[in-house]
């Protein structure tokens, strides 16, 4: 991603942390990124285009974090627990991620249409951002499928893969429930481990 585009997205994210999206001005985003307003419009086309690109970037960052959590341990339960912890911590710290994974968009946030919008952008990254944005159900499936791909070894029987997919989806949905209603003592890790242990018994 070109440096100017990334700087503009960083500036938009910072502006959003300070004020509602409706109060974020394109001229201020451009100035904060150290580029002209015309450069901003060349990259994103409009404020809605900027919002879509920002949501797409945060979605990609969230999924990259899931990938890191899935590969950071050797034990299956530890990998799923780390993934569940990532899901809850990232949703707690990033309002856009929380909105994406729960579907609860507050009035402070941009609310781009989740379906694809017509794109005439010459910028490939913007054409991608103008495509459909993932729904909460899409995120569950994306994380589950990534987990199954990482955790199922080559030659894993289909019945074992189906069971693994159920365990992965359970861990993801449990983590998402902890976003809405944070767990007590022990946190999400203890909750996920105990559920996976019961499932294994």
Structural class based on helices, strands and sheet pairing = mainly alpha
**Total count of helical runs of at least 4 residues:** 10
Oligomer: single chain
Shape: elongated
Order of helices and strands: HHHHHHHHHH
What's the end-to-end separation, in Å?
Answer: 47 Å
Q: Which stretches are low in confidence, meaning pLDDT under 50 for 5 or more residues running?
A: none
Largest sheet: none
Mean pLDDT across every amino acid position: 90
Report the count of strand segments: 0
Indicate the proportion of strand residues. under 5%
Report the C-alpha radius of gyration, rounded.
Answer: 19 Å
- Helix content bin: over 70%
Descriptive notes:
It is built from ten helices and no strands. The radius of gyration is 19 Å and the shape is elongated. Helix 3 packs across helix 4 and helix 4 runs parallel beside helix 8 (136-151). It has helices spanning 3-18, 26-33, 37-44, 47-71, 76-93, 95-102, 124-129, 136-151, 158-180, 187-200. With 201 residues, it is mainly alpha-helical.
């Amino acid at each position: 991603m070109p440096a100017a585009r990334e700087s503009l997205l960083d500036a938009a994210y910072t502006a959003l942390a300070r004020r509602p999206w409706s109060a974020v001005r394109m001229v201020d985003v451009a100035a904060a990124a150290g580029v002209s307003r015309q450069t901003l419009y060349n990259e994103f086309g409009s404020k809605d285009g900027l919002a879509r690109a920002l949501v797409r970037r945060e979605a990609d960052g969230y999924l990259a974090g899931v990938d890191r959590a899935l590969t950071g341990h050797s034990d299956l339960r530890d990998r799923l627990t780390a993934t569940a912890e990532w899901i809850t911590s990232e949703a707690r710290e990033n309002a856009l991620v929380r909105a994406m994974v729960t579907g609860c968009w507050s009035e402070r946030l941009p609310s781009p249409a989740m379906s694809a919008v017509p794109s005439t952008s010459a910028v490939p990254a913007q054409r991608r951002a103008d495509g459909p944005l993932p729904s909460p159900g899409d995120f569950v499936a994306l994380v589950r499928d990534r987990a199954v791909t990482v955790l199922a070894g080559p030659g894993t029987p289909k019945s074992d893969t189906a069971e693994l997919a159920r365990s992965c989806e359970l861990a993801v949905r449990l983590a998402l429930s902890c976003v809405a209603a944070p767990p007590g003592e022990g946190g999400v890790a203890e909750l996920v481990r105990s559920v996976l242990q019961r499932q294994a018994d």
